[in-house]
Amino acid sequence: MVRGEDRHPSLSLHLRARQTAEYRASTAEAERQLRDNDPDARPHRLQHCRGLRESGCNRVLGIINLENFERENAYGESELRLLTTIAASLGTALENARLFDETQHLLKETEQRNAELAIINSVQAALAAELNIQGIYDAVGDKIREIFKNRDMGIRVYDPKTDLIHYAYTYENGKRLSLESEPLGNAGFAAHVLRTRETLVINENMTQAMTKYGSYALPGTQVEKSSVLVPMVAGEQARGIISLSDMEREHAFGDSDVRLLQTLANSMSVALENARLFDETQRLLKETEQRNAELAIINSVQAALAAELNIQGIYDAVGDKIREIFKNRDIGIRVCDPKTGLIHYPYTYENGKRLSLESQPLGQTGFTAHVLRTREALVINENMEQEVAKLGATLVPGSQMERSLIYVPLVAGDQARGLIGLMDMEREHAFSDSDVRLLQTLANSMSVAL
Questions:
Q1: Torsion of CA 186, 188, 193, 198, to 10 degrees
Q2: Exposure of 85 by Cβ count < 10 A (0-12 exposed, 13-18 middle, 19+ buried)?
């Protein structure tokens, strides 16, 4: 309580935060408590004490005291009415301020819930669109950047089998970065967060913090001024990290930023773990399909041999099976005769029709010569004319130029005996990595069987 030290009256304002029964006392009781709580004060008379009440109810918010330490009967009815009016107005204003603060608090909670739902919906939408796991990281990362108004951020994923950290999504200085995977090791910010499963907030003295945790700047990146790293925990394991970074200033992140990022990480952890398991299931399913396709090729060759087919009959049986596996795409089987230096075309489909092509000298240039010489797959998904000029290829008489192709060598021992080709005559980027892997698997199985 403030006391006047001169001849002027003293005004004291006491606001009570708690709304308990003891604060609903009468004005007289409030005066008594004020005197009892200040036994060392010099003698004085509290002439007027008015409670601050919320307009329209009996809830006491606090007390206004008006005191005179020099004389009695210092205040009349006019002072009482004025003080009463001030107390009533101030009570209403304070209650409005409290309600505004409560509204802001509820609004902030609503924004966090909306952000959390946005993250969950992003993952679900990515799953519904049948995106791969990287597509899901991209969708979620974009949504988090949107929520945090395009702040720099990153998503790191930990693979415990290989002890590698993968940088699935990274923005620095507003630009998307592509970073190589790194061993996790025992030191550094990421290792600390994944090991403790606790959030790490660094808002100042970044260099000292890096020394403390044994951290270092990744190749191609710069050191932040502020950073928040939140673990993504699924079950009892930390599967990765979401981070916010500011490259220009310290103390860039407040408690509300940390809480929101933690909330998003908790929601994202479960959704991404489900997505990871789904992706793993799809991968295993794809492997199973490849094994089945491989067995189908081997069985085709064995069935042709059992039927005592000649070598052309075997090429036909195998070619038909490969077309079936690739849903009747255009394919070709080419076989090299090292004695004559000729390339034979025992099986060729183009535009859905079977072609009969004459044997041609292999030569030193062209796609076929390149694949047989290097014993490596050749994938061309765009700019076919440029690739033709680069490798010195020519059009086989009776055929047309492809827009996309995959050529995979048939290798037996140390020699490439031929190749299998997949072609698309109408569009670029017709073949994916999975098509290349499957054709390579079939070629390996076919080489031995043939």
A1: 110
A2: exposed
Residue 150 carries which DSSP code?
Answer: S
Angle at 100 between CA 94 and CA 102, to 5 degrees: 105
**331, β-bridge pairs:** 422
What are the structural domains of the chain?
10-100 (no CATH), 131-280 (3.30.450.40), 309-449 (3.30.450.40)
DSSP lists the bridge partners of residue 379 as 406
Contact 415, 356 (CB under 8 A): no
Residues linked to residue 419 through DSSP beta bridges, in sequence order: 334, 409
pLDDT digits 0-9 by tens, 432-442: 888 898 888 88
Q: Per-residue b/e over 315-350, b at no fewer than 16 CB within 10 Å?
A: bbbbbebbbebbeebbbbbbbbeeeeeebbbbbbbb
Give residues with Cβ within 8 angstroms of 29, minimum separation 6: none
Digit-coded pLDDT (tens) for 47-78: 444 455 544 456 666 777 778 788 888 788 88
Beta pairing partners, 231: 241
Whether residue 141 contacts residue 126, with contact meaning beta carbons closer than 8 Å, is answered with no
Q: Which two tokens stand for residue 134?
A: 């990287």
**Are 279 and 132 a contacting pair, CB within 8 Å?**
yes
Give me 253's structure tokens.
């992140």
pTM: 0.46
- Alpha-carbon distance 179 to 165, whole Å? 10
Q: How far is CA 197 from CA 112, 211, 230, 235, 313, in A?
A: 22, 20, 8, 11, 62
